[in-house]
Amino acid sequence: VERLELDDLLPIITRSVNRVMGTVNCLLLLRQGSTLLLAAQEGLEPELVKAFGEMEVGESLSGWVAEHGQPLVTADMRSEARARFPELADRYNYRSFLCVPLRHGSEIMGTLEVLTREVRHFTLEEQAVMAAFADQAAVAISNARLYEQARAHLLQVTESNRRLEELDRLRQQYLRNVSHEFRTPLTVIKGYAEYLRDSPPASEAALRDVMRVMVESSDRVIDMVDTLLEVSRIEHDSAQQSLQIARLELRDIVQASIEPLRAAAERKRLSLELDLPEQALVLEGDGGLLVQVVRKLVDNAVKYSLEGGRVAVRCRRADDGLQLEVEDAGIGIAPEHLPRIFDKFYMVDGGIARRAGGTGVGLYLVREIVRLHRGSVSVRSAPGAGSLFEVRLPCQYRPSEPAATVA
Ligand code: ADP
């Protein structure tokens, strides 16, 4: 009863039964639904182990005991109509059989049984010993099961705790990054505003340059605020209901999304290639959110590309909907980070990656928006070999379907 591991406990039971009953063949079957599974045995031939490995409750001698909760004793199995494999028992010369239920409260957990080659008439006393043994075994098995459940729960709780701690760490990192990301463009705007106030530039061209930088920096701040607003919107319980679904043209969405990114691409001397088909790519969705999907993916592709690289955005009709691909030839992502890059706040901490800035919510937002549209997003990438993000969206919006997962 002190043994808590089922794998240790069950063979001890069959071994002990053989010792106590003076037998050499003992089987312990445990019930799983309507099936009896051979959980432990001692002394049985492999062919019989296979044959008795799985039986139905109600069928066979053991199945009868499991169904009725009554012991069953027979001096010669060959004359037993309920025997499942009488010819096998005969071939291996088995004759007598004593089987008792493993009972815990009102539940019949399985059976405990001994087989003998000699014809043996089990006395009432022997049957009582076997039944008492089965009661003890049932308590021990039930304790071991409880222990296993408790251990599994503990593992779950430990895992949840670990995830919470990790999320908290990421959240703190996110707060630091977000503050930094806000501060940088605001500092630029303030610096240029002071410059304009104290010593206005002499030429029109210089003034335009200053203004351009200020506008771009303001755009960055607005973009970040928008992202934060979108995150809180899609995380709202009623996000699905608040979607503004309309008939959209994916090619227009792509064009509108990447326009503001052209300047950043040009600064890095990147070629930003658009591959859009001639025919219409109509889908139902929330235009504002889908623009964010394309923008985040292309923004990342630009951000994580090296000077002079190439970013390609492709759209096409796929078998079951529309497909959008954003490909870059940039720094790529190491395999150990790939499963996590869509997690909230997750950022790959590489030198170049960090220098590229960011807050770790972009891909999370992409995944959640795509999920709200019952689509899927996947990535293929390798360090130094660039990345390919693929989004698949159904043409028709179906709110009631279960959300697709990230591949
Ligand atoms: P971030 O604001 O840090 O860009 P994202 O959620 O958009 O956050 O991306 C998560 C991480 O995935 C990034 O920190 C970056 O390391 C990696 N990543 C995303 N897109 C790319 C890409 N196109 N190439 C390389 N790494 C990428």
* Largest sheet report: 6 strands, antiparallel
Number of strand segments: 13
Question: Between the first and last Cα atoms, what is the distance in angstroms?
Answer: 47 Å
H/I helix tally: 12
Q: Beta fraction of the residues?
A: 15-25%
Helix content: 40-55%
Attached small molecules: adenosine-5'-diphosphate
Radius of gyration: 35 Å
Q: For the residues shown, what is the average pLDDT?
A: 90
Strand order of the largest sheet: 3-2-1-6-5-4
* Structural class by secondary-structure content: alpha+beta
Query: Outline, from the CA principal axes?
Result: elongated
Low-confidence stretches: none
**Strand-and-helix sequence, N→C?**
HEEHEHEHEEHHHEHHEEHEEHHEE
Give a nutshell description of this structure.
Helix content is 48%, strand content 21%. The protein has twelve helices and 13 strands.
Can you describe this structure?
The protein has helices at residues 6-21, 46-51, 60-68, 86-91, 124-198, 204-234, 239-242, 250-258, 262-267, 287-303, 351-355, 362-372; strands at residues 25-32, 35-42, 54-56, 72-74, 96-104, 107-116, 245-249, 271-275, 282-286, 310-318, 321-328, 376-381, 387-393. It has 407 residues and is of the alpha+beta class. The strands form 3 sheets. The protein has a 6-stranded antiparallel β-sheet, sandwiched between helices. The protein has a 5-stranded mixed β-sheet with strand order 8-10-11-13-12. β12 (376-381) and β13 form a beta hairpin. α1 packs antiparallel against α5 and α5 (124-198) runs antiparallel to α6. The model has no long low-confidence stretch (mean pLDDT 90). Bound molecules: adenosine-5'-diphosphate. Residues 296, 300-301, 304, 328, 330-333, 341, 346-348, 353, 358-364, 387 line the site of adenosine-5'-diphosphate (ADP).
